[in-house]
Design brief:
This protein is of the alpha/beta class and 432 residues long. The protein has 13 helices and 17 strands. It has one domain: TIM Barrel (Alpha-Beta Barrel). Pfam families: Amidohydro_3, DHOase.
Length: 432
């Protein structure tokens, strides 16, 4: 990421800028860690002295992806993932910025822990790592964390992971405090008293003999939060939405001008409860995979722009916690390395245009977090990916770079191979 890196000229590329919604054929010049120029006039004979020329052969050149929800393991869960392994997986998958969740031990509720994550990322990370900090102390939902100090230390948002703050007064105080610091509240919207099951509530759960989680568990908590947003004026991001009940509430809140955004996981966009099949624990997720009708509504909401971002919800789990009966297995799946390729399913099915998919994984997260990245424009940081959206491959868990292998796409045929990933002008991954 140094400014003294040699210039790189990409030529013969399909340039997609999701921030502007534009697409053109041409080249792009990187100098000093930033985009120096781009357009149809940039060809090989315009290469500066000493520059490396990369012929993209018609591949897409786009801003690097920003994953707003990924577990990086450190501190405390290095047996599941490390910053080194998570960022290697991210680079291979085209992600140039990982926003780290707070489900660590200790929780990220102290400025020293924020500093630890930032230092470890600088020392061992291949891509940018931005830590979120805990919304409440020890993520217990009882006492608000020191939001101001945590933000000064480098936290980009506040989130208790897959734990909802059930105490409305605590949430109101946190939102009021966050508003004064212009901080972003991220919340997992699931009422734990209603969400005692292990998969989506419905006919399929009954046939499998498993306890279900109703859609209302999500909608009830979201409705409460949206009323608190109206009361406090805080910036609010619903981490993961999965149902039409939630989408209806979100639509009304946005129409009323509330500062609210939301995410959806790539799993909930591309898989449904039927994929669980014969008790496949790698598809045991929190929130659970929903009915196919719900999945289709999520895809339509993404295409419309109602859903703001796509996240991997990368959550590595080791063999001991997944190779057990479904009801006893841990929730979670890995996803940073396959997020882009899985999203190409939506593009190839004609459900969502490629620029819109890329916007949900780059420019829109950058806007929400206040980052410079996510743009294919002069002066923007040179966080870039080159990929072929059509090249097929079969997901082999043993070839993935995460420390765990709990991918829901085990053996799936996907399309979309990342050939080069650049962060701040430095190439951090290049396919052989």
């Amino acid at each position: 990421m140094s400014a003294d890196l040699a210039p790189v000229l990409f030529v013969n590329a399909r340039l997609i800028d999701p921030a502007a919604g534009s697409e053109q054929r041409g080249g792009l010049l990187v100098r000093g860690g930033r985009i120096a120029d781009l357009g149809p006039g940039l060809t090989r004979d315009r290469a500066p002295e000493g520059a490396r020329v990369v012929d993209c052969g018609g591949d897409v050149l786009a801003p690097g992806l920003i994953d707003m929800q990924a577990f990086v393991g450190e501190p405390g869960a290095e047996h599941r993932e490390t910053i080194a392994s998570a960022t290697l997986s991210a680079a291979v998958g085209g992600i140039t910025t990982l926003v780290a969740t707070t489900s660590t031990d200790p929780a990220v509720d102290d400025p020293a822990v924020v500093d630890f994550v930032l230092r470890r990322a600088r020392d061992t990370g291949r891509v940018r790592v931005l830590p979120m900090a805990s919304l409440t102390k020890a993520r217990e939902g009882r006492e608000m964390a020191e939001l101001g100090l945590l933000q000064q230390a480098g936290a980009v948002a506040f989130y208790d992971g897959a734990r909802s703050v059930t105490n409305a007064l605590v949430m109101r105080r946190a939102m009021t405090y966050a508003r004064d610091f212009d901080a972003l509240i991220v919340h997992f919207t699931q009422d734990p008293d209603l969400a005692g099951g292990v998969m989506n509530e419905g006919e399929f759960a009954l046939r499998l003999g498993l306890a279900g989680v109703p859609r209302e568990a999500e909608a009830v908590m979201l409705d409460r939060d949206l009323r608190l947003v109206a009361l406090t004026g805080a910036r609010y991001h619903a981490a993961v939405l999965t149902s039409t009940l939630s989408l209806d509430s979100l639509r009304a809140a946005k129409a009323a001008g509330l500062p609210v955004t939301c995410g959806v996981t790539i799993n909930h966009l591309t898989l449904n409860e039927n994929d669980i099949g014969d008790y496949r624990t790698f598809l045991k997720l929190r929130p659970p995979l929903r009915h196919e009708d719900e999945r289709q509504k999520l895809v339509a909401a993404l295409a419309e722009g109602l859903i703001d971002v796509i996240v991997s919800d990368h959550d590595p789990q080791d063999v001991e916690t997944k190779r057990v009966p479904f009801a006893e297995a841990e929730f979670g799946a890995i996803g940073v390395e396959t997020m882009l390729a899985a999203a190409m399913r939506l593009v190839h099915a004609g459900d969502v245009p490629l620029p819109r998919v890329l916007a949900a994984m780059s420019s829109r997260p950058a806007e929400i977090l206040g980052l410079e990245q996510g743009r294919l424009q002069k002066g923007a940081p040179a966080d870039l990916i080159r990929f072929d959206p059509d090249e097929p491959f079969v997901v082999d868990p043993d070839r993935l770079h995460s420390r765990c292998r709990n991918t829901p796409f085990d053996g799936a045929l996907l399309q979309g191979v990342v050939k080069l990933t650049m962060v701040g002008g430095a190439i951090v991954h290049e396919a052989a």
